[in-house]
Amino acid sequence: MCDKSQDIATVIKSLIECVPHGDDTVPLQRLYKNVFYKAPEVCDQYWQDLYSVLVRKYDGQSAMCDIYNDGYNSYQIKFNV
Q1: Range of the domain at 34
Q2: Residue 4 to residue 13: CA distance in whole angstroms
Q3: Which residues of the chain have pLDDT under 70?
């Protein structure tokens, strides 16, 4: 696993822990499992997949939005995206 994948996995793990009790975590679990197999050159695009899941399944969860934004901003700085 590359450094980019590790950073994304950390954010997804935080998001999974933030999902309200009773809500479905399967979409995030799938992304979490798949990110470990991503090549560095496609990791930047993986943020779009994560964003799509968040908007579709967890719209209105401000804590999750904050986790995503903080993670993405850190990722951009760290990897000069």
Answers
A1: 3-79
A2: 14
A3: none
